[in-house]
Specification:
Blueprint (H helix, E strand, L loop, with lengths): L2 H4 L21 E6 L15 H4 L9 H10 L4 E6 L9 H8 L4 E6 L18 E7 L2 H7 L2 H13 L4 E7 L1 H5 L1 H9 L5 E5 L3 E2 L2 E2 L6 H21 L27 E2 L5 E4 L4 E3 L7 E4 L12 E2 L6 H7 L19
Parallel strand pairs: 1-2, 1-10, 2-3, 3-4, 4-5, 5-6
Antiparallel strand pairs: 7-8, 9-13, 10-11, 11-12
Length: about 325
Amino acid sequence: MSSAAQRPEPSKPTAASPRSAPVFDYEMEGDWNLLWTCNYRCPYCFVPPEKLGSKIRTSASAEQWGAAFDATGKRWLIHMTGGEPTIYPDFPKLCETLTKRHLISLNSNLSRPAARTLAGRVDPRRVSFINAGLQPGERVRRKGFADFASNARFLKDAGFRVFVTVVATPIVIANLPALAASCARHSLHIAPKILRFPYGGKSYPWAYTREQKNRLREYIVRAREHYTRAYEGWPRPSIDVLSDDELLDGLPNFRGRNCSAGERFVQISHDGEVHRCDPVRSSLGNLLQGTVRFADAAAPCDTSYCVYFCKKYAAPVQAARSAREPAPAIAF
């Protein structure tokens, strides 16, 4: 029997508040791309439209996924992303099954009823955070802001740590005061999430103007102060958009730095394939097949993955070398 199977199960969900003590003891973190499919078509999304519109495929049942994570003998923090994870078949049952022995976090546009059904089935203390992505263009097109706000507030009131984030395109930055006011009317607080890739023929964050950076810093600091107070005692989230002001002048260069990816963090594909971080590179095995072999120690970074996970698991940069990548050469 694995060590994970010997641990007692947590108590059933109670009427928790955002200040309820979270239960965060984990040995391995996984960034799980549950599916590519999404019901939104945001212009800044890095996923190609043909993948966003692909047919939903499942590789295992909720029970089989739970057993696969249990069989590693580790307690996990599983970050569920996509695509839009809540459209995955029987998503609430999947979350309920995983959180019996593990922890989860979630990226979602909160457009589906499945998001609300987490309340009462999943203990909020076993959910690190819900990154509630407000997509203004899609919400306006679908007349869905009220639904988004209602779902976010419902989950917040149920005791989940909910961050309301918005991708900081130039149009969004210009409209941040109005967006913040709209959220405030529902007792929600907006946190800008900076662009970190080409958009509109320019490369970000280098393309932000001084005025745009100043406004972003103002709203990011406000968000950090608000959420730090609201969730006092909770650990910093892995997808730490509350520190995006640190990235406005360039992105960290992680290449060559010792990193615990493969040892304490992995990327997981929809079919259970496990990678150190970059899914294009060699596999560490497959969760569902029970063939995963984790690394025994940290190793130098030879790629790039996600700045948030890289910041968390890479060794501190040496003072003698540059901590910033130059802006990539692209045609404007």
